[in-house]
Every structure is written in structure tokens, then in C-alpha cells.
Design goal:
It is built from twelve helices and twelve strands. By secondary structure, it is α/β, with parallel strands linked by helices. Strands 1, 2, 3, 4, 5, 11 and 12 form a seven-stranded mixed beta sheet that branches. Strands 8-7-9-6-10 form a five-stranded mixed beta sheet.
Length: 310
């Protein structure tokens, strides 16, 4: 009869424990609000072992799109347009997404800028914002890809005729001396078949076990539910990662993009993704783009064990 030693049992437990999930989101207020409770250890993760729960990473959404295309992360925030192109490798989860009802990215310009912009600074060629802008404006402009937080300053100093703003900066173009030319949320309301505008989604690698993907979805729902119930517990992290720092702007952004569809997109969210898929197919490959700086930004990370957050 063979007796297992404590060391043998510890080795077995270690071998059986799942590796931490690599979870990557943007520092956008809606992402931070949704994930903060999970990140901070205030809500349960997807498995029974919090110590092997997840390593979190933050990066610009275009960098996340490109990283997912390379298969880097287990769970990742993606532009909805990018997620649709990666459906063979990533499953779009039913929760954690951002859908705009009458709200969306904003095309802005200097007050004296040309009516028909020839160059537009955009937050990435794989973003939903760019896909919808191409449908709205047609092919008559050259895209200048750059990091999302560089766009408003670039337009203000004359580096582009116009700029496509995403995240919370889209709510305050006047702070940069810019004026609104086109609200893509309003444009989509007239062209999206009555669906909300699907801007971003959370996706999980299809080679993860199905039970683990379902566990991730439950962890996201638990995190968002706690954030809604205990806003004050997650707000410091939301502010720490935001581009615009005043609470009124952050609150307005979260109100626009975090709602019941973020808990479960349901049939409404699926119809919105179908409408976006049809729009992307109708417009074909992206048009001309001028060389620009890399879209990504230095990313932060925080890995559980849950006492480690920095």
C-alpha cells in the first residue's frame, strides 16, 4: 500500500490548479467600472481558487485589438468590429460590453477647419469607431492612426483636419478648442436598424474550457453588480485610470455606456452585432491610412493573489 506524502499532495494540488487568466481591458471609465471590483478582490473570480484567479493588464483599445489578433490574452476587451473578425479564435461573452443608445464616438475639428476633412486622426483601424466613420463619410479621407488620447491635441495644433474621439474625451471636445462635426451615435441611430451601437465587447479564447469561459462571464457580472451597489468602493480606481479627471464627465460616460446590456447583451446586443457585421462587410477593407505612431500605450498590470494590486 502506497501512502502519499504531504509533499506529493502539494505537488498534485499545484499541478491541478489552473494558471492565472490573463485579462486585458482598456483604462476607459466604463471598462474600469465594470472590472474594478474583480481587480480589487471585492467580488469573486471565476474559480474556487482566488490565488490563481487572474493577472490584469491595461492598454489602449487598439493595442488590445492587435494583441488579441496575436492570441496574447485569455480574456480581452475588444472593439466590437475587431471581435467580429476574430470570432474563430475568441468567443464574444454576453456581458461586459459597451453599447451606445444615441451615444457614440465624435468627429471633431477646429472651428476654422475644412468642412470636408481630408485627414482624420483615428484611434486605430480596427476600432468600431473607425468602421462606423468610414460608413458615414465614405472613402474620401485619409486616416491618421494614433493613440486615442493624442487625437484631440493633434487636431488642435493642426496635425489633422479632424479627429475621431472615443472614451470620455468625446464628451468634452471644447476643452481642446474643438467643435463637434458628427456624432456617430446619432448617425447609427438612423442607420443601425434600431439597434444600439456596439462599441466594445469582452471576448475569451475559444481554447479555454467552456466552464472557465462561463465562470469569467459570471465574474464580470458579479463585479459590475458590486460596482453598481458600492460605487464608492471602485471610484478611486476609475479616476486613477481615466483621461479626464472630473467626476461629472466620468459619471456621464459610464451612464452612456454601462447599462443592463453590460450585464447581459441578450437578443438586443446580438442584433446590434449583426448590424455592425453587415456594415463592415458592406464597406470592405479599410481605406488609405498615413503612417502614424504606434497605437498602444504603456500598459499596467495587477496580478492576484488579491493582496497585490499594483
Amino acid at each position: 500500500m502506497t501512502t502519499a506524502t504531504t509533499a506529493d499532495m502539494n505537488m498534485t494540488d499545484t499541478a491541478a490548479a489552473p494558471a492565472p487568466l490573463s485579462v486585458a481591458v482598456s483604462p476607459c471609465p466604463n471598462d474600469t467600472f465594470i472590472f474594478a471590483a474583480w481587480v480589487l478582490g471585492l467580488s469573486p473570480g471565476p474559480g474556487p481558487e482566488p490565488r490563481a484567479d487572474a493577472c490584469f493588464h491595461w492598454a489602449d483599445v487598439q493595442q488590445l485589438n492587435q494583441s488579441a489578433a496575436a492570441g496574447r490574452f485569455d480574456v480581452v476587451k475588444l472593439s466590437a468590429a475587431a471581435a467580429l473578425a476574430l470570432e474563430d479564435r475568441y468567443e464574444i461573452l454576453p456581458c461586459g460590453g459597451a453599447y451606445g443608445t444615441g451615444a457614440g464616438p465624435k468627429l471633431v475639428a477646429r472651428p476654422d477647419g475644412p468642412e470636408a476633412p481630408r485627414t482624420v486622426a483615428v484611434p486605430g483601424l480596427d476600432t468600431t469607431a473607425f468602421a462606423v466613420l468610414r460608413a458615414a463619410l465614405g472613402p474620401g479621407f485619409t486616416a491618421l492612426p494614433m493613440r486615442f488620447d493624442h487625437i484631440a491635441p493633434a487636431v488642435a495644433r493642426g496635425g489633422a483636419d479632424a479627429g475621431l474621439l472615443i472614451h470620455e474625451t468625446a464628451l468634452v471636445p471644447e476643452r481642446y478648442g474643438l467643435t463637434l462635426r458628427l456624432d456617430l451615435g446619432a448617425w447609427w441611430a438612423g442607420h443601425g436598424g434600431g439597434t444600439p451601437l456596439p462599441l466594445g465587447v469582452i471576448a475569451a479564447r475559444r481554447d479555454l474550457p467552456e466552464a472557465r469561459r462561463r465562470g469569467v462571464a459570471e465574474a464580470i457580472r458579479a463585479s459590475l453588480t458590486l460596482a453598481r451597489e458600492r460605487r464608492e468602493a471602485v471610484w478611486p480606481l476609475v479616476r486613477a485610470l481615466a483621461r479626464e479627471l472630473d467626476d461629472a464627465t466620468l459619471e456621464a460616460h459610464i451612464a452612456a455606456y454601462v447599462d443592463d446590456l453590460s450585464l447581459d447583451m441578450g437578443a438586443t446586443g446580438r442584433a446590434a452585432l449583426d448590424a455592425l457585421r453587415a456594415l463592415v462587410r458592406a464597406n470592405g477593407p479599410a481605406g488609405p491610412a498615413a503612417p502614424g505612431p504606434a497605437a498602444g500605450q504603456p500598459s499596467g498590470s495587477a496580478c492576484h493573489p488579491r493582496q497585490t494590486h499594483g
